[in-house]
Each structure stands twice: as C-alpha cells, then as structure tokens.
Amino acid sequence: MRKCVITLALAIFCLSGCNAGTSHGADVNSVKSSSSITESSSGKLSSTAENTSDVSSGIAESSSDNSLSASESKASFSSDIEEEVSEPVLTSEPYSRDTRISNVINDPVFGDHGRLIFPVDEGYYSGETLGDLRLTWYNNIDPDTTVEIANYMRSHAESGEVIFYDIYSDSEKTADPRKEDTGLFFFKGTPGEKFAVCSAGGGFAYVGAMQDSFPHALELSKRGYNAFAVIYRPGAQTACEDLSRAIAFIFDHADELEVDTDCYSLWGGSAGARMSAWVGSDGTEDFGERALPHAGAVIMQYTGLSDYSDNDPPTYVCVGDSDGIANWRTMKTRLDNISSLGIDTEFHVYEGLRHGFGIGTGTVAEGWVDDAVRFWEKQF
C-alpha cells in the first residue's frame, strides 16, 4: 500500500522546482484529513495535522475574479450566515447565470443528491448565483459552462434518466457516515462505449467538481464516451478508496450502465490527478477493493506529484506555467522519468495559466481535452 506523505514544505517545493521523482514506496494510511497541506520534494504526502494536497503559500497568486483563498471563503461564509436566509424559489424555467445556487441544490428533481453538486463544505465556495460561483484554489471558471452542466443534469433527471449512483450500501454509510457524501454522477455517452472516471481536486479538503470533473465528464459524453464524476470523502486515503469503489461499482454494473470496461481512463486535476495516478498505478486492490484491470490511460492536470514506477499507465499531463501550486517543471520531470521506462506519455504546458483552469474554456488551453482523448484512444 502506498504511503502518501504530507510535510510542511509544499510552498518551497512547488515554487522552487522540485527534484525528480522517485519510485513508489509510501502508504496512504498515514494521511490525516484537515484543511491545508504541503508537499515534500519527493512529491509524496506525509502525515501531519493538516492535509489538502497541492496547496501552499502559492495559493496567494490565485486572485482572479472567480478564485478565493480558504480564509476569504470561510470569512465570506461566516458573514453570509449572519444575514437572513430566504427560502429558495424553485422554477421550471431553465437555469441561468442568475439562478441561485441554493435553488439548484434544493431542486426536487435531484432528490437528496442535489447537495453533492456543489462542495458539501460551503466554506470552500462563494457566490449566490451560478454566474458568481467561485471555488477555493481555482481559476478560469466559465459561468456558461456552469449553467450548461446544471441544465444538463436537470434535463436528464427530469426525463427519468439516472444521473447519480450511490457506491456504498446503507449499512456501509451507517458504519461510516462520511460515506453519505459520496457517489457517482453519470454523464452518459453512446451505449456500449468505453468509460472514464473524473476526479476533481480540492486539496483533499473538498471536491471542486463544478470546475474540475463535471466539465470534463460532460465533454467526454459529447464525444460518445460514458463519463463518471466521483464525489469522494476528504483525505488522500479515503479519496483513493472511494475512487477504487467507484471503479468496482462500474465494473459490477457494466451491463446496466451500458459501458465497455476495456481500456477505461482515469482523469483528474490537482488532488484528483494524484488519485488517478495512485489508483492507476497501484490498482484498486491497494485501496480495499478486489483486483481489477488497471486503467488504460491516466489524464492528469496541475499537480506536483513526482513519484513514479513501471506500473504507471500511459500518462497525459497538462499544466500552466504560472501555476504557483503545481510546478510545471516537476510534472515534466516526472513524465520524462515515466517515459524512460518505455511508457507512453504526452506533456503540455500553457503560457500564463494558473492553477485550476479546468477544461480551459476561453484560455490558451482550450481544446486540450481533444488532445487528451486522442492520447487515450492511442491506447485502445
């Protein structure tokens, strides 16, 4: 079992250009969940009182209109709750930029899982409407994409399609109530086509799905692939366990879901990229599930992970050169090391982009999803 190491050196590590990766050899069990982390020069996570991967003093550079620091987010939420809270006004009209986030969460069409569309811990996002949404540590959030995703979910749910699946049983949730906040959102593609699982980042403190996994899943479904966005528990170990359970769930229900399980792919940004790399390399059996075929490709965005092994799947990476959290040189060095083992890789760095640009709509990275899909398809 991998050990994921967290230290208090992430800021120095990420901003100074980290050392080359090492072989695997850490244990995720040592990780404890909290609200901030740092990273060692080996790129592994270590046990401390704090744990949110890919977060450092470098987050101060995330100052665009749609990104906020954790302290700003917490303070904003604290002040908001002092105001009078009005009842959400539900409407049959399509969502728009002006639709209140609370109206989406409480829309009866979503049942109980509407609360999982946005971070469960409200301290990590701000904004009252879909157009105003901001997520801690993220940049380049496109409000039109946010609206499109919300309307996609709503229209498919209204038509009777299942858009959300529980991955744990009621008894498992009773034993660990945190599993109530897990599951899979399904963006259905062509019946019988291959599948991908997308894992959002959020420093292992929260799940930034509206920027870091829902957009990717929606784009993949438009291209005919069956895409899932996993909602997981905070903490590196539990996150990898939830991703592994999600993969097992898809394999177990492949006929019902109408998916091809051969050469599936794992996509992730920031902390989600680490999850994809770890599970892709070590396998579901290292995180409490039965052994299943490993992913045919891993698609990673903006994470300072540097450990690697000859078990790593073919890996695609993209990152911005102005990312103050995940150093692009660290990612390039890791990929060079993987490539030296004879494993297929592809690397892209985008000028001027900061952390958490998602699918890159309206940026120099726009279109990278097509590159990544082609890379995945090479592995078929």
Give a description of the structure:
By secondary structure, the chain is an alpha/beta fold. It is built from twelve helices and eleven strands. The chain has helices at 10-16, 70-80, 101-105, 143-158, 170-175, 209-212, 214-222, 236-252, 254-257, 271-282, 328-340, 368-378; strands at 67-68, 125-126, 134-136, 164-165, 183-187, 193-199, 226-231, 259-269, 297-301, 315-320, 345-350. The strands form two sheets. The protein has an eight-stranded mixed β-sheet with strand order 4-5-7-6-8-9-10-11, with helices on both faces. Helix 8 (236-252) crosses helix 10 (271-282). The chain is globular.
Please sum up the structure shown:
With 380 residues, the chain is of the alpha/beta class. The protein is built from twelve helices and eleven strands.
Key phrases:
about 375 residues, alpha/beta, eight-stranded mixed beta sheet, three-stranded mixed beta sheet, globular
Q: Strand tally, please?
A: 11
The helix/strand series, from N terminus to C terminus, equals HEHHEEHEHEEHHEHHEHEEHEH
Uncertain segments:
1-65, 67-88
Largest sheet entry: 8 strands, mixed
Tell me the radius of gyration.
19 Å
Q: Strand fraction band?
A: 5-15%
Distance between the termini: 28 Å
> Which secondary-structure class do the elements indicate?
alpha/beta
Q: Which strands sit side by side, in order, in the main sheet?
A: 4-5-7-6-8-9-10-11
User: What is the count of DSSP helices, taking H or I runs of 4+ residues?
Assistant: 12
Helical percentage: 25-40%
* Approximate shape: globular
Residue-averaged pLDDT: 84
